[in-house]
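Quarterly update from the structural biology core.
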Amino acid sequence: MADFQVEWLTLHRRTYNGEIPGATWRIKRGDKVNLHLNNTLTEPEKLQPFNGFRFTNSTNIHTHGLHISSREPEDNIFVHLKPGQSYNYKYNIDPDNPSGTYWYHSHLHGASLFQVHSGMAGMIIVDDVKHETPDHLWKVSCPEHCEHDIQLVFQPILEYRNLFGNGFSTLQMRMQDNQLFWHTNIISSGGTLAQWLARNIYLYTVNGQVKPVVAMPTGQTKRFR
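Predicted structure, tokenized:
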């Protein structure tokens, strides 16, 4: 768990290494990637029903866009890390894996929606290969021109309103989340902050921020991922 500040609101969220979004992975075609996932969340957690919201504090990790095996120790979505457990993923990136922008997130059945809304996701970049990349794009891209390569991760971490039955406050109740992580403080308009958020706030964040601003000089080119 980590406290994360968005504008005036302090969030108490499950994250990767205390960051929203999680750290960006930069890899190359043909790489061998070793990832150690350590679940520092604690008991107790909801265990039932089988095909419902459960496993508040168990987790795993899943990638999108990488041409890797679905068998252990690669990207097996059935890996189940209980509180206090850890796991070593080993990814063999295909030499023909397309360069591009991809992502990773929690994918344990029963917990994925809740943990992704909490903030457990991040970007993966498979680096461009110079001889395949147009010159104008290479000049604004990592690894040689990272000052122009801007990463944008959109996340539903402020989806509190219950538009589709899955507002974050509702998810916390359905997951039987520890009430220490709820916004139970009473506010001046009456009721709790959690209740006010559920009535009023439904926002996506960009890199963990609301309406961030990018300053660019006239005539300069940037690459947005």
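The chain has four helices and twelve strands.
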